[in-house]
Design a protein that fits this description.
Helix content: 40-55%
Structural class: alpha/beta
Number of strands: 7
CATH architecture: 3-Layer(aba) Sandwich
CATH topology: Rossmann fold
Largest sheet: 7 strands, parallel
Number of domains: 1
Radius of gyration: 18 Å
CATH class: Alpha Beta
Oligomer: single chain
Strand order of the largest sheet: 3-2-1-4-5-6-7
Number of helices: 8
Strand content: 5-15%
Order of helices and strands: EHEHEHEHEHEHHHE
């Protein structure tokens, strides 16, 4: 069944690569009007070339002032907002707790949870003005399971779950729903870098490390960025109109992460 979001105004953070780009593509095909941002200028220029109708700006979502200014542009260019997707995030360091640098810990918090807060602080008033809408926050399977050697990342992804459920309770009376999507092992350069870092930390090969990760998945597979984008589209559509406060894993049934 195809989903048509004709005229819906959508903000997607970190939309120039990975899950974010898949979301831009998926929502564009559903006829939504899209505003996105990214910190990678090269990826952003490629996105603008491939999707000329998409509004795209360079922005670091961990910078409060930059986000506040950007949402002024969102309102000016789109005239409001119906769907807010907080997708921005980084992998953070791979290390034992005693070896994590304070700067790496703080940077992971700034990007993985503070950025969600900043975008929601300025996006939610637009959803209220539209008399309803959808907030989707991208967490991780590491937001429901422990993830050894990935303490900053896992901690922030658990925080995103609490953030999402609290927003659902707060915004429900305004006909605004809030959900968290928990991707599993998302295929691409980012997970490959994580696998290599963990392999190095454990003194094993990349292939052995990847096999360990996949062995903890019932379906013995990773997921595509489009698997995540399709769930976001469903939750944003009329078919997801009564789904709120949910923590939805799209992961092939991850039982453990090592």
């Amino acid at each position: 069944m195809s989903i048509d979001l004709e005229g819906a105004r959508v903000f997607i953070s970190a939309g120039a690569a990975g899950i974010g780009r898949a979301m831009v593509d998926t929502f564009a095909k559903a006829n939504a009007r899209i505003f996105t941002c990214d910190v990678n200028e090269k990826d952003l220029k490629e996105l603008e070339s491939d999707f000329p109708a998409v509004e795209a700006v360079l922005c670091d979502c961990s910078d409060h002032d930059a986000v506040r200014s950007m949402f002024g542009e969102v309102e000016r260019r789109l005239g409001g907002l119906d769907i807010l997707i907080n997708n921005v995030g980084i992998a953070g360091p791979t290390a034992r707790v005693e070896d994590i640098e304070i700067e790496d810990w703080q940077r992971t918090l700034d990007i993985n949870i503070s950025a969600h807060f900043y975008c929601s602080k300025y996006g939610v008033p637009m959803l209220k003005a539209a008399q309803g809408g959808s907030v989707i926050n991208v967490s991780s399977v590491a937001g429901r399971l422990g993830f050894p050697l990935r303490l900053p990342y896992s901690s922030t992804k658990w925080a995103v779950v609490g953030f999402s459920k609290t927003l659902a309770a707060e915004l429900g009376p305004f006909n605004i729903r809030s959900n968290a999507i928990l991707p599993g092992i998302v295929e691409g350069d980012r997970i490959n870098a994580v696998i290599q870092a963990k392999a190095d930390a454990m003194n094993i090969s990349f292939d052995d490390m990847r096999e360990q990760l996949v062995s903890g998945v019932s379906m013995r597979t990773g997921v595509s960025p489009y698997d995540i984008a399709n769930m976001a589209l469903f939750l944003s559509s009329g078919m997801g109109a009564k789904i709120s406060g949910q923590v939805i894993s799209v992961d092939g049934d991850v039982l453990k992460i090592t």
